[in-house]
Design a protein that fits this description.
Blueprint lengths: L6 E5 L31 E7 L3 H4 L23 H7 L7 H57 L6 H13 L12 H19 L7 H4 L2 H11 L3 H7 L6 H14 L9 H8 L1 E7 L11 E8 L6 E7 L8 E6 L6 E7 L8 H19 L7 H9 L10 E4 L6 E5 L23 H9 L1 H10 L29 H10 L1 H15 L18
Parallel strand pairs: 3-9
Antiparallel strand pairs: 1-2, 3-7, 4-5, 5-6, 6-7, 8-9
The protein binds a DNA duplex (16 and 16 nucleotides) through helix 7, helix 8, helix 9 and strand 4.
Amino acid sequence: MDIQPPTTIRFPLLFDDANDPHDLDRTPSPCDGKRVVAVGEMMDFFSVKNDSDAKEEIDLSTGLEPVNVKTGLNLLTWNTSSDQSMVDDGVSSDVEEKRDMSEVERMAILRAEVERMGSENQRLRDMLSKTSADYCALQTHMVTFMQEHKQGNPEDGPESSSIRRQCNDGKAENGKPLIPRQFMELGLAIAGREAEDHLSSPSGGRSSDQLGSPVKAREYWGSRKIGTRKISRSSDKNQSPDQEWLLNNKATRLRSPSKRGADQTESVMRKARVSVRAQSAAAMITDGCQWRKYGQKMAKGNPCPRAYYRCTMAASCPVRKQVQRCAEDSSVLITTYEGQHNHPLPPAAMAMASTTSSAAQMLLSGSTSSSNRTTNANFLSRATLPCSSSMATLSASSPFPTVTLDLTQNPVNLQSRPFPSLGPNFSNHPKATAAAAMFPRLFSQAMHSQSKFSGLQMSKDISPHSQPDEPQQGTHNDSTSATAAIAANPNFTAALVAAISSIMGGLQESGRNGCQNTANEG
DNA sequence: CGATTTTGACCGGCGC
DNA sequence: GCGCCGGTCAAAATCG
């Protein structure tokens, strides 16, 4: 039996190098001369996957199917050579006898190893039970908290009741232990809804099909140059569809603070920001989207300029981002995203987009309930993520609710490494458990950024629409992008859960149809 | 020559 | 009302 050398899923890490046209440093600034060498490297996260896994891999879109998930233990290979010796053709020699003896010894060693793994398996299974219980407790607490503040928000109904129902049982309806996925779905679901609304609204007159291509986006932005400002500022009449989104954005900004209600959700959603702090020499993290720079300003208190970009993948896409180096440490790049994409995203962009979407929704989940901004602020101010206060925080003090992911506390380890099994520190940390339950994406980011989680298979479905010939964002790598991508991808979290479940072996037989993971819907 | 970036001007919000 | 500041625009400059 030939054992295929494991193939790997490689994550392109893209650093825009000094020649990048987006490079902020082209503008003379006090940051000049502080560039460090950009690191480019393909991260080899999942080296335990082989080709056959294409058929066996966990179907993260339809549920946790812990069938034949590779554990990295290479269990199928240890008896191969002995099998061969047992069916030997009979032509024996001293050398072969010695080899047989050594193989018997190896068998004994491996058996001992299997026994050890079995006990470890049992230990991990117990941990999973405890983790599930903790998760349910936390989620119930969260739902209760949200209900107290929402008071009849229709969004809250079925989802939360389902959560409660599942948690009350300690299991999903099909008997499986509850898998933390509701929060993953939430952001995507809302984001999708908003995208639909946008596309179906008059302001979303251009469909993504019409504007999905970069070429058309460029045409759009080119055409927008004609008189946009005058129209937007002189009169709201005779707006072209192209300009309407801009006006909507302005209207959102100009909306009276007293005007709250049904549209507050959308307003907050649009204003919610996700800020990513990362050590990077690159001028801009490559997140898979296409951006066009539309401005640059010196911000108060920071010698480095702040650059403004807007998404150009669709004409009416309201997403913008600001890129600025940290005032205290110019090696830290701060990228702030705002808005929701209203167009199909390339696989490379899905991760960051879903992160921003989820983060925005996370903010929303604490802000839609009450029309009282004070309540929202209280919620946000208390919402420091359990995983690490320095790594991911919510802020209500800034003009817009902002989630900050700080990757600078534990710099991303760029070393490619083989994938053993789950890292030793995984799952036995109460805070980590709680964090994973509450905020799967952030948790997975924490896992990665702390380099404590080093292995499990990721489904190739991480990029469900990926195309083999799609350029992997050039030759420069970007740890920030990859980290964000991993952190953001619901499949990663689901794969994490699936792998644990699979390794523990406790989920296969208890019904597979119920607790379906829909994390990568949409 | 079209696409993209640069950069000074402009606008609105906000605090005083 | 004034000035500061963040954000945006759009003509000019630059790039490929």
